[in-house]
Design a protein that fits this description.
The complex is a heterodimer of chains A (324) and B (262). By secondary structure, chain A is mainly alpha-helical. Chain A has helices spanning 6-17, 20-38, 47-72, 80-95, 100-125, 129-148, 158-166, 174-192, 194-204, 206-211, 216-242, 253-263, 275-294, 299-323; strands spanning 153-154, 168-169, 172-173, 244-245. Chain B has 262 residues and is an alpha/beta fold. Chain B has a domain at 1-86 and 173-182 and 208-262: P-loop containing nucleotide triphosphate hydrolases (Rossmann fold), CATH 3.40.50. Chain B contains ten helices and ten strands. In chain B, helix 6 (157-170) packs parallel to helix 7 (187-202). The radius of gyration of chain B is 19 Å and the shape is globular. The termini of chain B are close together. Residues 1-6 and 258-262 of chain B have low confidence and may be disordered. The chains are: A mainly alpha (324), B alpha/beta (262). Chain A binds chain B through residues 192-195, 197-198, 200-201, 204-205, 207-209, 211-214, 271-272, 324, and chain B through 78-80, 83, 91, 93-100, 104, 108-109, 111, 113, 122-125, 153. Chain B: GO terms for molecular function: ATP binding. Chain B: Keywords: ATP-binding, Nucleotide-binding.
Chain lengths: 324, 262
């Protein structure tokens, strides 16, 4: 038994290193090295640029953490981009009438309500989350356009802009705090708490989870509420940083977030997610955007890259699923 | 009866009737299971075995009749009710999460939480305590499971079966119902599962075993209850019959002559 041949051992070692969960780190280092070489005279490789990337990516990171919850139970949520705009618009409008705490609460509750509706529709109608959230995405986008009259709504409240935008706390940018807090909460919930354990059980084997007495419908609905809540917070972060809300916010984020989570090692079919992977994945997407801009490419190339990354991630995941 | 010392009824099923639309799947089934006894539940496809198991495990509450645990009537309206009453069912799909490890499966939905009140309120998992107790309950079953942190996907069919049985027993079950536990297993692993069944019965747990394998029934059971067209057609001590008798009871070739003798 103990006479494992060196060749076999080497193969084990190689398969381990090629595992999808590590892929994100290789990819990150590769892209970082590539840009560092090609863009060495543009200030790409500076601390301030990286801070910039992390700050700009904060909404994406938080959405990626949220989407990980939906993926954990085996759902996908296509409505997150539309929730970003809705929450930003609701928050901005409320700020004109009430104080910041109520406006924030209103925006977040709106987001949670969307998650609840998504969840109830999926469970009651027994339709795939892909189709339901595709539908709610359309509905929400329409509502947001109507409510905002296709106009930007300015956010003047200095407290709001400091908290969700460019404020600092203990010398660290607020957006970095938001990122770290959500990454930490996501990690703890999924890895250390009963709730996270149940999420993964429901995603991994719904029938087994049900047989063990877990109320799988409730768990799945809660996961979608968390997902939408994260998207709503992302909306507030945009509104804070840009000092205003517009119906186009979050429009292009869906693809970025799905690509970030997929490249981070989550299974798009449920039961396996990685919060650290999702965070690094979102930073990778941010870094690629940043690098492409510094290289003089347009948003068109950024979109193409995002699409290609998603396809790559899904291809690797599918290969690993086949090979077990 | 073989086990006189333990002849104390733990599970009693009285006149269970279950209808699905116009079809009577069960028509007044009654039988008893004693503590530490292994009872084979036999019958052809469609005889009502699965329905009966679903009634006893709380999935389909019966239309008529009652279920008694230790002489007390219990209402089983959900699998959780059955679990609380001390009845555990090991279904064919085992109800385990393949991506989870052994400990995570053993404690699925009855996780031990941290002793710190705040963390407890948050639902913080006490992995150490769960691992320790898992080790204990697996030791009790002379388990051959290599590591508690091994994911279920990496275990053999027999080891998976052992995890499911260990979970049932460690939840403090007094009655464990097993649906075809060896159907998907090879010879050696089947033998291991049969050993495990004998072991838990020797520890006082009653086992209701559904099987199509007459050799396994002869090897592991003390008694056999035979269902035929939704009725209990025979209730016999295994010592009094051979394989051929069981087969003819199942197919309905021989009638109720054994039922009286039990």
């Amino acid at each position: 038994m103990s006479t494992t041949s060196p060749a076999l051992a080497r193969q084990d070692w190689a398969t381990k290193l090629l595992k999808r969960q590590y892929f994100i780190y290789y990819m990150f280092i590769l892209v970082l090295a590539g840009f560092a070489i090609f863009l060495n005279d543009t200030g790409f490789l500076s601390l301030s640029n990286f801070m910039n990337i992390i700050r700009q990516t904060a909404p994406i990171t938080i959405m990626a953490v949220g989407l990980s919850f939906a993926l954990a139970v085996g759902h996908i949520d296509l409505s997150i981009g539309s929730v970003v705009a809705l929450s930003a618009i609701v928050g901005a409008i409320l700020l004109q009438y009430v104080g910041m705490p109520l406006a924030v609460a209103g925006a977040l509750l709106t987001g949670m309500l969307v998650g609840l509706i998504n969840g109830l529709l999926i469970e009651r109608l027994r339709v795939s989350s892909l189709l339901i959230t595709l539908g709610t995405m359309g509905v929400i986008t329409g509502i947001t356009r109507q409510v905002s009259n296709l106009e930007s709504i300015p956010v003047i409240d200095p407290m709001f802009r400091a908290l969700f935008g460019n404020g600092e706390f203990l010398g660290v940018p607020g957006l970095l705090w938001w990122t770290l807090i959500f990454a930490l909460i996501g990690y703890v919930v999924l890895n250390k708490l009963v709730f996270g354990r149940h999420l993964l059980a429901v995603g991994g084997s719904p029938e087994s989870a049900r047989a063990m007495g877990i109320r799988i419908e409730n768990v799945r609905i809660k996961a979608l509420i968390v997902c939408s809540l994260c998207a709503a917070i992302a909306g507030l972060l945009y509104a804070g940083r840009l000092a205003g809300a517009r119906y186009t916010l979050g429009e292009a984020d869906l693809l970025t977030v799905i690509a970030a989570v997929a490249i981070g090692g989550a299974s798009l079919f449920g039961g396996r997610v990685s919060i650290i992977g999702a965070v690094i994945g979102s930073w990778l997407m941010g870094m690629i955007n940043n690098g492409l801009i510094l290289s003089g490419f347009s948003t068109d190339e950024q979109m193409i890259t995002r699409g290609l990354i998603l396809i790559t991630a899904v291809a690797i995941g599918a290969r690993e699923a086949r090979n077990g | 009866m073989v086990r006189n010392a333990l002849s104390q009824t733990i599970l009693e099923v009285k006149g269970i009737t279950k209808r699905f639309g116009g079809v009577e799947a069960l028509r007044g089934v009654s039988f008893k299971v004693n503590k530490g006894e292994v009872v084979g539940l036999l019958g052809d496809n469609g005889a009502g075995k699965s329905t009966l198991v679903r009634c006893i495990s709380g999935i389909h509450p019966p239309d008529e009749g009652e279920i008694l645990i230790a002489d007390k009537p219990v209402k089983l309206n959900s699998p959780m009710d059955a679990r609380d009453a001390g009845i555990e069912t090991v279904f064919q799909d085992l109800a385990i999460v393949p991506e989870f490890d052994v400990v995570q499966n053993l404690y699925l939905n009855r996780e031990i939480r941290s002793s710190n009140p705040l963390l407890r309120w948050l639902g913080w998992l006490d992995t150490k305590a769960m691992t320790k107790r898992s080790q204990k309950s697996l030791n009790r079953l002379n388990s051959r499971i290599p590591s508690l942190n091994e994911k279920i996907v990496n275990l053999s069919g027999g080891q998976r079966q052992a995890v499911a049985i260990a979970r049932a027993v460690s939840w403090g079950a007094e009655v464990v119902i097993m649906d075809e536990p060896t159907a998907a297993l090879g010879v050696e692993q089947s033998a291991q599962v049969n050993e495990l069944i004998k072991l838990i019965s020797s520890q006082g747990v009653a086992v209701v075993l559904i099987s199509h394998n007459m050799q396994h029934v002869m090897d592991t059971c003390d008694r056999a209850v035979v269902l035929y067209q939704g009725r209990c057609s025979a209730d016999v001590a295994i010592a009094d019959v051979d394989k051929n008798d069981l087969v003819s009871l199942i197919t309905g070739a021989s009638g109720l002559q054994f039922a009286e003798s039990a």
